[in-house]
Amino acid sequence: MGRLMMIAMLLAVAVSGYAQRDSLTVIETGDSIGRMLAPMDSVVAEDTKALLADSTSVVVKKQRKEKVKRDWNTWTPDPQRALWLALVIPGAGQIYNRKYWKLPIIYGGFMGCIYALTWNNMMYKDYSQAYLDIMDSDPGTASYNKFLHLGAQVTNENEERYKKLFKSRKDKYRRWRDMSFFVMLGVYAISVIDAYVDAELSVFDISKDLSLKVEPAVIPNMMGGNPLQAQSIGVNCSLNF
Questions:
Q1: Is the pTM of this model over 0.70?
Q2: What is the C-alpha separation between 219 and 201, in angstroms, rounded?
Q3: Who has greater pLDDT, 224 or 86?
Q4: How far is CA 21 from the centre of its chain?
Q5: CA torsion, ordered 219, 223, 226, 228, to nearest 10 deg
Q6: What is the per-residue pLDDT for 191?
Q7: Contact (Cβ atoms closer than 8 angstroms) between residue 92 and residue 106
Q8: CB 133 within 8 A of CB 159
Q9: pLDDT, average across residues 175-196
Q10: Is the pLDDT assigned to residue 234 strictly greater than 80?
């Protein structure tokens, strides 16, 4: 009986020792797993911070790329750009300055000059050919007959008069053709100057604060020795801005 008790006590001590060893093993294993997971948590945190920084930079870049809407109420044209646009394309400077009401004037001037240039050039060529035909002695070249009145003919008596007439008309239409060309250049120059000046004056102050006041004033006369002439009456002009 005593031996059985001793054996039971030894078994109990062995089991308790084995249990303690297992618990220590579990604790040590848990600590090692914790130490292994600690750097993994730091890596995850760093990756999260990197992802957040990347997303923030992407949002900022998208906001920068977004086109800002222009406020036309505060927009002012650039004079240099208006000048170059008007030089390259007639009327483009006025479009850039948002002065659309000037376009019919400019393009109307161009169309009128082109029509006058074409018409006068055509008449100049016709009268030039008629003058050449009446000056030669070939009876087959008589294009001048279309300029004669109904029933009129060129004879030896009136030939010199018709020669002078065709020559004067030829020179007249040539002069008008050249004048039409120079007038068209003038319209082009005016459109360029107008676009540049209009852009320059877009920031000019035209508010009600600008005013010119003219009123009579008494001006002291310091040079006069006579007390009666110590003061003189004049006009005072003041500009408020």
A1: no
A2: 37
A3: 86
A4: 86
A5: 0
A6: 95
A7: no
A8: no
A9: 96
A10: no
